[in-house]
Amino acid sequence: MTIKCKAVLLNRMIITMAIGVGLLTLVLFLIFPVVRGYLYFISMVLMLCSLICIFYLNRFELLVIGIEKDDVHLSFVNNSIFRRKEIKVRKAQVRLKWEGKVLIFLIDGQQQAILRKNAADAADWKNLLNGL
């Protein structure tokens, strides 16, 4: 069984960042109209720092979950900065921890992946809970 997930948190955070940095840049342009060259630089630095933080926070988000007989394959959304390699483990090693609308995959007691309920279809969500 293969479950394809959506990057819900990544999309929401990028949209929020673009709106936030855009509004902050607009306010800075209106308050300090004389130093526009520095404001362009400051807005780009803010955007870069925000993107790095967003990719860091999304390093555990799942893209594809593959469940076979005794194995679980996990691949991640973030394949650029803070890249995670695909994880292949036995089902017995995987523990699931439920926190609100988030399902946390623990391997050897450490958090390795996160799946949000709205990132998967309802049918896939039920199959995942029954499959593991």
Describe the structure.
- With 132 residues, this protein is an alpha+beta fold.
- It is 42% helix and 29% strand.
- It has three helices and seven strands.
- The protein has helices at residues 8-31, 36-57, 122-131, and strands at residues 2-4, 62-67, 71-76, 87-90, 94-99, 102-107, 110-116.
- Strands 1-2-3-4 form a four-stranded antiparallel β-sheet, with helices on one face. Strands 5-6-7 form a three-stranded antiparallel β-sheet, with no helix packed on it.
- Helix 1 (8-31) runs antiparallel to helix 2.
- The chain starts with a strand and ends with a helix.
- The mean pLDDT is 84.
- The chain crosses the membrane at residues 12-32, 38-57.
- Keywords: Membrane, Transmembrane, Transmembrane helix.
